[in-house]
Amino acid sequence: MSRPTLWLRCEKKEFERRSALTPTTAKKLIDAGFDIIVERDDQRIFDDAEFEAVGCKLVENNSWPSAPKEIPIIGLKELPVSTEPLPHTHIQFAHCYKTQAGWSSVLARFHNGGGTLYDLEFLTDESGRRVAAFGYHAGFAGAAAGALALASQKKGKKLGKLEPYANETEMVEAVKAALGGTGKGVKALVIGALGRCGRGAVDLFKKIGLEEDDILKWDMAETAKGGPFQEILDVDIFVNCIYLSSPIPHFLTHKQIDAAGKDRQLAVVVDVSCDTTNPHNPIPIYNINTTFSNPTVPVEVGEGNPSMTVISIDHLPTLLPREASEQFSSDLLPSLLQLPSRQTARVWTDAEKLYKEKLALAVKAEGL
Ligand SMILES: NC(=O)c1ccc[n+]([C@@H]2O[C@H](COP(=O)([O-])OP(=O)(O)OC[C@H]3O[C@@H](n4cnc5c(N)ncnc54)[C@H](O)[C@@H]3O)[C@@H](O)[C@H]2O)c1
Questions:
Q1: How far is the CA of 165 from the centre of ligand 1 (A)?
Q2: Which pLDDT score, from 0 to 100, does residue 13 have?
Q3: Calpha distance 56→26 (Å, rounded)
Q4: Domain enclosing residue 179, as ranges
Q5: Any idea which UniProt keywords this protein has (predicted)?
């Protein structure tokens, strides 16, 4: 019997340095009997040589369209827009199941080619929780960006362009240096602290030196009393990491900020949740997503009051491509190991069932 094989394709989305497979997880798959084919990719945070060293077979960049049809192709982000039919099985984030712009034309490519899509966002365990997600490093990087913005604001400056860090240690050291050697003395409040993003934010604050008592960790129990919350105004950095699933009272409002005037401690809000355009956004004090080039947006605070900014970047894990990839890929590994039995393994049969439902909707929408 031939060995199960997976093909790691290159990423074509600008700035995307993360990877669905890492040298670590590729080695584990090889040890479990897989052949792993890896496209050369300068954009990826891992060097091609790191994959070669663990026994992967290297192939040309973007050569997956000519791969044998029976080999599943794994990648992270969506493929470049095209109408080319897709005959392979693809494992990736496709962003086409929630009627996003262009959703039906993406699925039409699979219909026309006879391929299959397993969307990484919808690989779930028995309880419906995602098997792999990037939340932890989103929170970690978001908290770091918040601390950097605070350091800049203290010097009367605006935070400049953010660039991906080679690794977590480099990020932690850069944030500590910006704060004059340590974050000790800074106060932070994380809401959604028990979730993936929230745990990452709390860990960053610990690593840069905040005192345990200066990191307020709130989740459902603490917000049950209903906002807005004065406590948010009394810290330097507020990081929102909740998963918004239903309308809730606002956490923070312009009215509160106006009323606090010069007595406000709060200088930076990091909205990791980024429900920016959601009508139920619990932080209705800003209305755009910020970017790595321009990470902060000022909040209207009234003449003579201390400045305040919001960071609302929706792809924060890109700031830590190595660790974010390692964590995501290792969480995905148990499911990948079941790929050879994808006709019966629940995680894959559920994902295929969902794909077929969405495909049927797309076929109708496109009149195919
Ligand atoms: N900005 C980015 O780059 C980025 C990256 C990944 C995820 N996200 C977003 O971050 C959000 C959180 O993702 P996650 O993976 O951490 O989710 P999660 O489900 O692991 O955690 C969410 C946490 O929020 C808590 N929560 C929900 N409603 C709350 C409320 N009203 N008050 C207090 N706590 C509340 C939950 O109890 C849970 O602990 C999602 O909206 C996700 O889309 C953003």
A1: 23
A2: 85
A3: 7
A4: 135-319
A5: Amino-acid biosynthesis, Disulfide bond, Lysine biosynthesis, NAD, Oxidoreductase
